[in-house]
UniProtKB/TrEMBL annotation:
GO terms for molecular function: metallocarboxypeptidase activity; zinc ion binding. One of its GO terms (biological process) is proteolysis. Residues 30-306 form the Peptidase M14 domain. SUPFAM superfamilies: Zn-dependent exopeptidases. Belongs to the peptidase M14 family. It comes from Cognatiluteimonas weifangensis. This is Peptidase. It comes from the Bacteria. InterPro entries: Peptidase_M14.
Length: 311
C-alpha cells in the first residue's frame, strides 16, 4: 500500500495542476475493449430492446459512443426503472451485470414497467480499468448542473425528461482492493491531502439515500443477494468504509448532495450496489449474478410497493 508521499505523481501537499493530470493520464494503458465487450453485447440486444445513442465522448484519439437500452413496449403511463452500470469504468460486474439483466430478464417486465438501462457510463475508464475519466475526475462525484465530467453530463441529459417519473434507480458498483492500493492514494495526491489508510469490506453492501431512506427496500435487495454471495459485515466500529451500518449490509450517503449517480432522479427507491470481486469467497460469475439479483429485487419491490412513503 502506497503512502501519499510515495504516490508517483505530484508533490505531497500540493493540489494537481494540468501537468500532473497529463502525467497521470500518460500512465493509463488500455487493457480491454469497450467495442468488443460492451458495444457488441448491446448490438446483440437490439432484437429485444430499443437501443438509443445518448451521447459521444471525444477524448482526442479516443471516441466513445454512449448507448442506453429501452423497453420496446415503452408507454408513458408506466413507471420507469433506471439501471446504471460502469459509472466507475473499472467496476466490471456493474457493466456486465447490467447487460446480463437486460439480456436475460428485461422481458420479464414487459407491460409492467419502462426499463432504461445505461450499462457503461464511463467507457474510457472501462478500457483502462480505472475509476476516473481522462481528466482525473470521478464521474460519480460529478452528477450536478454544469458537470465537468462529460460522462455524467450525458447521462443527466438522457434522464432529465424522466426525472420525476422514475420509480426506482439502482446504480451498480464494486468496491475493490485497488480502491485502497491505487485510487484512494491517487485521490489524496490529486487533492494535496494526506492519505489515511482504510478498510475494504469483504462482501456485498448497499448505499441508501440518507435524505429519504427506504430500509425495507434495501433489505429486500440484501435478502435476494444473500442467496448469491455473502453480505459484508460491519467493521469493529460498526461501520462500512467509515459510514455507520444502519441495517445488515446497508449504509447511507447524501446521494444528490454528493453528486452521486443514484441521486439523479426523484425516484422513491434509490440504491447503489457494492460487490467485492477480490474476495476469496466470490467469483466473477457470482459478482455478475449478485448485480442481476439486486436489480430484479429492486424492481420487484418497487412495483409491489409503488406508494410506500419515504422513511
Amino acid at each position: 500500500m502506497q503512502p501519499a508521499a510515495s504516490y508517483p505523481i505530484g508533490t505531497p501537499g500540493v493540489v494537481w495542476g494540468a501537468a500532473e493530470v497529463a502525467a497521470w493520464r500518460a500512465r493509463q494503458v488500455r487493457r480491454r475493449s469497450y467495442a468488443d465487450d460492451v458495444l457488441a453485447a448491446i448490438e446483440r440486444l437490439r432484437a429485444q430492446l430499443d437501443v438509443e445513442q445518448y451521447g459521444e465522448l471525444d477524448y482526442g484519439a479516443d471516441r466513445y459512443p454512449l448507448f442506453a437500452l429501452r423497453s420496446r413496449d415503452w408507454r408513458d403511463a408506466r413507471p420507469v426503472a433506471l439501471v446504471t452500470g460502469g459509472v466507475h469504468g473499472y467496476e466490471t460486474s456493474g457493466v456486465h451485470g447490467a447487460l446480463r439483466f437486460a439480456g436475460h430478464h428485461a422481458a420479464d417486465y414487459a407491460g409492467r414497467v419502462n426499463l432504461l438501462i445505461a450499462p457503461c457510463v464511463s467507457p474510457w475508464g472501462y478500457e483502462r480499468i480505472h475509476r476516473w475519466n481522462p481528466d482525473a475526475l470521478d464521474p460519480n462525484r460529478s452528477f450536478r448542473a454544469d458537470s465537468p465530467a462529460p460522462e455524467s453530463a450525458a447521462l443527466l441529459q438522457l434522464v432529465a425528461p424522466l426525472r420525476e417519473r422514475v420509480l426506482v434507480h439502482i446504480d451498480l458498483h464494486e468496491t475493490t482492493d485497488s480502491d485502497e492500493s491505487e485510487f484512494r492514494p491517487a485521490l489524496a495526491a490529486r487533492d494535496g491531502k494526506p492519505f489515511t489508510p482504510g478498510t475494504i469490506p469483504d462482501g456485498f453492501y448497499l448505499v441508501d439515500d440518507s435524505a429519504a431512506p427506504q430500509p425495507a427496500f434495501q433489505q429486500a435487495i440484501i435478502a435476494a443477494v444473500a442467496a448469491v454471495t455473502h453480505i459484508a459485515p460491519a467493521d469493529a466500529d460498526g461501520t462500512i468504509i467509515g459510514s455507520p451500518v444502519v441495517a445488515p449490509g446497508v449504509i447511507e450517503y447524501a446521494l444528490e448532495e454528493l453528486g452521486l449517480c443514484a441521486g439523479i432522479t426523484a425516484a422513491r427507491y434509490k440504491t447503489t450496489t457494492e460487490v467485492y470481486p477480490d474476495s476469496p469467497r466470490a467469483t466473477p460469475e457470482q459478482c455478475n449474478a449478485a448485480q442481476v439479483a439486486a436489480v430484479r429485487a429492486a424492481i420487484d419491490y418497487a412495483l409491489a410497493h409503488p406508494a410506500t412513503p419515504a422513511g
